[in-house]
Each structure stands twice: as structure tokens, then as C-alpha cells.
Design brief:
This protein is mostly helical. Helices cover about 50% and strands about 5% of the residues. It has 5 helices and 2 strands. Strands 1-2 form a two-stranded antiparallel sheet. A hairpin with a 2-residue loop joins β1 and β2. The N and C termini lie far apart (about 45 Å). The relative contact order is 0.12.
Amino acid sequence: MVFILGVNFPESRLVKRTLESFYGIGPQVSRNVMARLYIHPTAKVGSLANKQILELTAELSNLTIENDLKRQLRDNIIRLRDMGSWRGRRHAMGLPVRGQRTRTQVSG
């Protein structure tokens, strides 16, 4: 088991899949991080050296992921609500925000 940012991962898991398991990291960001750290796209977590794991952890700690990103999104929505903007009112009512159709197919 390899310990990255407070989570244990099995050694047989791909590094790309491991990175994408964090909230806020998708395929493009994981590819960029792996390229920056010279990690092969098909590398497994167990094949990484301790130095690479430390570099990976340091790189992930610089990104806005997990709880920080969720808090940032929540704060942005609260800010829109408090301003009374159209998007904020739509969020408050639980309706679609980005101009989707509401005459039919709105769950709410």
C-alpha cells in the first residue's frame, strides 16, 4: 500500500487512475502532472520510487483539490445568492442555472 495525501492505494493501481480518484483532478490534469514529474502513463503506484511519491504529494498539495475545491465552489454559490444575481436566485430555487429548458423535464 502506498500512502498519498492521506489515502492508501494498492500497489497494482495505475498512477493515472490514482490521481483521478481525487476530486478536482481529471484526465488532462493527471496527464500534465505525470508529464511534469516524468512518470510513464502506464506506470503503477508500486513501481514509483519514494522520491517520486514525495514529489507527487508535493505537486498535489499545490493544487486546489478535494475539500478546498468543494469549499471554493460552495462559497462562490453563496456569494451569488447573497448578491441576488439571476444565477444566485436560480441556485436558491434549485432550478437550472445555465439556460436549460424548464417547460418540461425539470426535476424539483
